[in-house]
Design brief:
This protein has about 475 residues and is α/β, with parallel strands linked by helices. It is built from 19 helices and 14 strands.
Length: about 475
């Protein structure tokens, strides 16, 4: 955040602005030509560009037009500066998308005000883009089982309130989806939904992720590519919803600070001298028994009561197996569209096998399985039982090679062996989080040998 690119062919102006803006806490980069500036913009993200209208290699307004045509996710706000300002130039700059127009000699006070407003405009644009992405990706709470019907009713009843929510459930049950559904039906649905996985952030960084930092207080001492200051998730979620996933993994020290922020709706960013006031609805989720964690001294009882105003429980997939056909249909549509195969269906014998499986990874595991089956069967329009991973059969109590097992569904021993090898290789790659080199080591194979084996078996993974 707060990264400024100064583009001016006058070294004195570049150095003067760089010195002033650095003192104000901005991260500053400079360029003397349009070509240099465009190269910098392609390699890094900037929030605001201060762009001179007269440049030695290209007209500044033409450069502005090129900047506005860049990837919309990285387009900065552009403020035009000129020593020969005219109404015509200012109007043209505005039509091309410039945020504002400054005349030389620059007024320090006006430059700082325009820069601050441009930063806020950029942030609002980012927040709106994030919100639109969330709306586009927001799923529905799928299922006709009694637990899911009850869950949807509970969401409809509780979402319009501002009460804090604590969602319980095993890993992979869809706790984040419930949080998003709550937000989508809340009074804050037109504002941002910010997510933070507490288990994924190292302890040394969790405080700055939650509350942000100011001028030079970056964790680890910062660096050339580290922003001078950063807004934390509490501040970014102001007016909207903050989803704290795996809240049970926070340290007691962090829990104390979150408790205070919840009570006061304000907090002090690291390195700041003044508190930030926010209006945030917190939805937390955990796969742990927090009452048991309290008894062990791992979780604060007072924080538990602050979060547990509206408790939700998301049932595991094994307790709502009648929802599996609907979920499979949803995932087939999603991945079928992604891989250009919109009409793939799961046959009844395959669905019956899926219903017998225990699903320790819950809905996430089912989603991954559907994607894997589509990848391994690129020409199939109907997914049959024999095309499912062997793990499904083993958990269902149907041992491979037994009279009622999967072995009878293959025409030859070669087909059965290849199916087992595909499943075993994918399982090992999953265990190594997609790292083929580590999987090869675990399988006792050379990396090149594993790649040849994967190619022969039609195995494709994203590293």
């Amino acid at each position: 955040m707060n990264h400024v690119l100064i583009v001016d062919d006058e070294a004195e102006i570049r150095e003067s602005l760089e010195s002033i803006l650095t003192e104000e806490g901005y991260l500053v980069t400079t360029a003397a030509t349009a070509g240099e500036a465009l190269a910098l913009l392609r390699d890094a993200a900037y929030d605001v560009v201060l762009l001179d209208i007269w440049l030695p290699d290209r007209d500044g307004l033409d450069t502005l037009g090129e900047i506005r045509q860049m990837d919309s996710a990285n387009v900065p706000e552009v403020v035009i500066i000129s020593g020969h300002g005219t109404i015509e130039a200012a109007v043209r700059a505005t039509k091309l998308g410039a945020y504002d127009f400054l005349e030389k000699p620059l007024s320090l006070a006006r430059t700082l005000i325009v820069l601050k407003n441009a930063m806020q405009s950029r942030q609002m644009r980012e927040d709106n883009a994030e919100f639109q992405r969330q709306l586009a990706s927001k799923g529905t709470v799928t299922g006709t089982s009694v637990p899911m019907k009850a869950l949807r009713q509970q969401i409809k009843l509780m979402a319009p309130t501002n009460g804090r929510v604590l969602i319980y459930g095993e890993s992979g049950t869809g706790k984040e989806l419930i949080g998003r559904a709550m937000h989508a039906e809340s009074l804050r649905k037109d504002r941002v939904f910010v997510e933070l996985n507490c288990a994924a952030i190292p302890e040394d960084y969790i405080e700055t992720e939650l509350f942000g930092y100011r001028h030079g207080a970056a964790p680890g001492g910062g660096g050339p590519n580290v922003p001078a200051e950063k807004r934390g998730t509490f501040e970014r979620a102001d007016g909207g919803t903050l989803f704290l996933d795996e809240v049970g993994d926070m340290s007691l020290k962090t829990q104390a600070k979150v408790l205070r922020a919840l009570d006061e709706q304000r907090f002090l960013p690291v390195g700041a001298s003044h508190p930030v006031h926010v209006d945030v609805r917190v939805i937390a989720a955990t796969n742990k028994d927090l009452e048991e964690e309290i008894a062990r001294g791992n979780f604060r009882e007072d924080l538990f009561y602050r979060l547990n105003v509206i408790p939700f429980f998301v049932p595991p997939l094994r307790d709502r197996k009648e929802d599996i056909p609907l979920l499979v249909k949803e995932f087939l549509a999603e991945f079928g569209a992604q891989y250009g195969r919109p009409r793939v269906e799961m046959m009844e014998d395959a669905l019956a096998a899926l219903k017998q499986y225990h699903w320790p990874g819950n809905v996430r595991e089912l989603r991954n399985l559907v994607e894997r089956v589509l990848i391994l069967n690129p020409k199939a329009q109907r997914i049959e039982r024999k095309q499912l991973p062997m793990l499904v059969y083993r958990d269902a109590g149907k041992a491979v090679g037994s009279g009622s097992g999967r072995g009878e569904e293959f025409a030859t021993l070669l087909e059965a062996r290849e199916a087992y090898e595909r499943d075993y290789i994918l399982k090992k790659i999953d265990e190594c989080h997609g790292n083929v080199s580590r999987a090869a080591e675990g399988l006792g194979l050379e990396r090149s040998h594993l790649y040849r084996k994967m190619k022969a078996l039609g195995v494709s993974v994203k590293e």
